[in-house]
Hints:
Elements: E1 3-8, E2 24-25, E3 28-29, H1 30-41, E4 46-51, H2 56-63, E5 69-71, H3 76-86, E6 92-97, H4 105-118, E7 120-126, E8 131-134, E9 140-144, E10 150-152, E11 156-159, H5 160-170, H6 178-183, E12 191-193, H7 204-215
Amino acid sequence: MSAGLAILAAGGSSRAGTDKVSAELGGHAVLLWSLAAAEASGAYAAIVIVAPADRVSAIAALVGSRVPVVPGGATRTASSWAGLDALRGHDVIAIHDAARPFATPSLFARVVAVATEYGSAIPGLAVAETVRRADEAGRAVEEVDRRGLWTAQTPQAFQRGLLERARAASGNRSFSDDAAAVIAMNEDVRLVAGERRNFKLTSVEDVAYARELAEKGLVAIPAQPLPR
């Protein structure tokens, strides 16, 4: 099966206080870390970047001629469907959030392998901390049984037919991730082991922490030619 990857760079960055995907991280833009890892995996016949319509030119300048950049939608789900449209002809579609720059080449390859066999692959981590539900005032209400709870990551991969059916069934609804769209039509998704380093840059503190990891040499961008 031929696999294609859509890297979503179309989300807002209000909580991070900056444009996350073009922010500098270890000498490279955040977006280029995911792109380099995906290329290094060797798992994808095609890669596209999905960017806000008003930033397509800026993102295209950032990635150079390596991959095409297409406009996304008003929601994350709409941007996923834009990526799906841009990857016609590929049997497995993976979707990754550019705000997760430390996903490794092996993770990019693993989700394709699992989705090829089982139809879907969602990386995640079993919840290890105690989980408590709070009320609106911030008071702890109850402890939640964490058995069977996972936090979801990207890249998430699906056989094309499954994702096309999820799109048709979803109508104009928006979902937190692509697995949610598949689950909404009562289809199973296959969880695979994620990576602790594959955290999402959401806040200013996240960006600062990521830069600290890069400065200390604890993470490194995969060796790929970067755009001039």
